[in-house]
Design goal:
single chain, 218 residues, alpha+beta, 2 domains, two-stranded antiparallel ribbon, 6 strands
Length: 218
């Protein structure tokens, strides 16, 4: 990587010491490259005693407890996985595009691309307990409603748009029409009542005349 950029604050360095992470050591068939993404507060020492299942299942492969926090380890779906496998709520899909850089003894410790791809990509996610919304709603419903007390001496300073706008004027003609309609309706009701009263009176007089004529004939 002769044309690689050296970050600010670093200098180019060569190493003649062999390590287990040299690119040449990874060529061994018994060695695999694993990529594990962990939260910022998790150190490599925290992972030392973890037992990881090698299953390719979408289920949790291992658990980690640190203090009061709990974590679950999942396999990152591969880029060639079926849509139903990718869309399972597990993040870290961008890890499929990562490449590994390792020091090379053949190039005096310079970083080179690893001779093999990542065999497994895992992600450690923190477990978050989401409370039941029904329980929360019941607590809110059952909690007493307290009236908020306002301090004395408050003055209204903010006046929203249209605060001092007068209402739309009502024309006198419109009021007069409404009154006339009400008067007509009242007159109609009164007229119906008068007709009914007159009809009842006439029927009563007819009954009296019939009774009188019967007495005279007797």
């Amino acid at each position: 990587m002769e044309n690689s950029h050296i970050p600010e604050g670093f200098i180019s360095s060569s190493s003649k010491y062999k390590s287990n992470f040299d690119a040449e050591s990874v060529l061994d068939d018994d060695k695999e490259l694993w990529l594990i993404r962990v939260p910022e507060n998790i150190s490599p020492e925290d992972l030392a005693n973890m037992k990881i299942r090698t299953s390719s299942s979408k289920k949790c492969l291992s658990k980690l407890k640190k203090g009061t926090d709990s974590y679950s380890l999942y396999r990152v779906p591969s880029a060639t996985a079926a849509d139903e496998e990718v869309d399972n709520g597990i993040s870290g899909h961008e890890m499929n595009g990562f490449s590994c850089l390792l020091p090379s003894m053949a190039k005096n410790g310079k970083l080179v691309f690893a001779p093999k791809a990542f065999e497994r990509m895992l992600i450690l996610d923190e477990e978050v307990d989401i409370p039941d919304s029904t329980v929360i709603a019941e607590k809110i419903r059952d909690s007493p409603v307290t009236k908020r007390e306002h301090p004395e001496g408050l003055k209204m300073r903010f006046k929203p748009y249209g605060f001092d706008t007068e209402g739309a004027p009502v024309e006198k003609k419109e009021i007069k029409v409404k009154k006339e309609k009400a008067a007509v309706a009242a007159t109609k009701v009164k007229s119906e009542k008068d007709k009914k009263r007159k009809r009842e009176k006439n029927e009563s007089e007819k009954d009296k005349k019939k009774k009188k004529s019967k007495k005279d004939s007797a």
